[in-house]
Amino acid sequence: MPEGRSVLVTGADRGIGRAIAEAFVAAGDRVVGTYRTGRPEDVPEGAVAVRADVTDTTSVDAAFSRAEELHGPVEVLVANAGVTRDALLMRATDDDFSTVLDTNLGGAHRCARRAAKGMVRLKRGRIVLIGSVVGLYGSPGQASYAASKAALVGLARALTRELGGRGITTNVVAPGYISTAMTDALPQAQQEAYQDAIPASRFGAAEEVAGAVVFLASDAAGYISGAVVPVDGGLGMGH
């Protein structure tokens, strides 16, 4: 049986990123999962934990170099690491805005740039950027987060035109409200109000996001690029 692909998932120590790393491990791929402030043991079993800060080019390069030492050139990149600094527009600071943009957008750009070096040589590759329904639908108090996630769509489409002829696809997965420790801690009435706005009438599971990512990284999705795939129960449809 052939060895699995070399996969790198950023922000793999919790939530959606952890579920994505688990899904690739279960598929038989060789996975490096990065973490920044958590613990290496939070990266799922079967994946190699590597500390990385996606806002630092040297740190990103070191993470990719480690993945290449272990598994060869990265064939699948999932740029998942992200932060929020929610605040109403008139209370938002320049530092918070810069932090969110540099992590969510700048981090994806740094990782894609580094991954492309190996993918171009291989003449194949899959880049999946984790966006958000908020990037297309909007949300009060999340101007910086929405802007950073909307920008990932432009990044994916520019990379599709630039790298598509080399057998490399770039797509965005846009999760909606996903069941996490944060949503579980919300008051029941608030959870119900959110769910009332979702046609599926429930929060999603991180594993459902991971399923979309694994599909986009598969051979079956070789003719899909520059797409935005919502995993949001219908919340953002039409946006």
Written overview of the protein:
The mean pLDDT is 95. This protein is 44% helix and 15% strand. The protein has helices at 15-26, 57-71, 94-122, 134-137, 143-163, 181-184, 188-196, 206-216; strands at 6-9, 30-35, 47-51, 76-79, 125-130, 168-175, 228-231. The chain has a single domain (6-225), classed as NAD(P)-binding Rossmann-like Domain (Rossmann fold), CATH 3.40.50. The N and C termini lie far apart (42 Å). A 7-stranded parallel β-sheet has the order 3-2-1-4-5-6-7, with helices on both faces. It is globular, with a radius of gyration of 17 Å. With 239 residues, it is of the alpha/beta class.
Helices and strands, with pairings:
Elements: E1 6-9, H1 15-26, E2 30-35, E3 47-51, H2 57-71, E4 76-79, H3 94-122, E5 125-130, H4 134-137, H5 143-163, E6 168-175, H6 181-184, H7 188-196, H8 206-216, E7 228-231
Parallel strand pairs: 1-2, 1-4, 2-3, 4-5, 5-6, 6-7
How is this structure best summarized?
About 45% of the residues lie in helices and about 15% in strands.
Task: Evaluate the radius of gyration.
Answer: 17 Å
In helices, the fraction of residues equals 40-55%
Provide the spatial order of strands within the biggest beta sheet. 3-2-1-4-5-6-7
Detail the poorly predicted runs: none
Overall geometry comes to: globular
Largest sheet geometry: 7 strands, parallel
Annotated CATH homologous superfamily: NAD(P)-binding Rossmann-like Domain
Number of domains: 1
* Helix/strand/pairing category: alpha/beta
CATH level 3 topology = Rossmann fold
Head-to-tail CA distance between termini = 42 Å
Mean pLDDT rating: 95
* CATH architecture descriptor: 3-Layer(aba) Sandwich
Q: Tell how many strands the DSSP assignment holds.
A: 7
